[in-house]
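re: ur question from earlier - yeah i can do the single chain one, its not a big deal. heres the input i used so u can compare w yours
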Amino acid sequence: MIVYDLECETGHRFEGWFSSAGDFEKQRDGQLLTCPVCGNATVKRLPSAAYVNTGAVEPVAQPQSPAPNIPQQYANLGPEIMAKVVEHIIQNTENVGDKFPEEARKIYYHEAPERHIRGTASRKEAEALRDEGIEVVALPPLLPYGGKTH
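and the output i got, formated as tokens:
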């Protein structure tokens, strides 16, 4: 497994895990890689230090501020900022679940009232929406924050 530091065209940094360098290139060239913050498919690999396996056992680093259930890979945002972002999204959007692609199209084509929605869509569905001119943004999973469920 290879871990690359990546950056989208708009400057969001994140990491990706690939089975090989060729796998990374194939996914990048096929525009299968998208930024987890903004959904941008123009992604480049950032320079990183090489890892050399010396056989020595390295001590496991303890996190400075443990944050269970909060992913840290989204543009290096801390748990407090992520919690605020997610809370804002939840308070200002309607959850349409797996009907997201269908509902987004209805709103775009003025077949349903205009409103802010959230839900789930596969990468292929999101790309199809973008191809139609419908703006969609990939977001991190909306995990329970502060004991709240969504």
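The CA atoms of residues 51 and 57 lie 14 Å apart. not sure if urs matches, ping me
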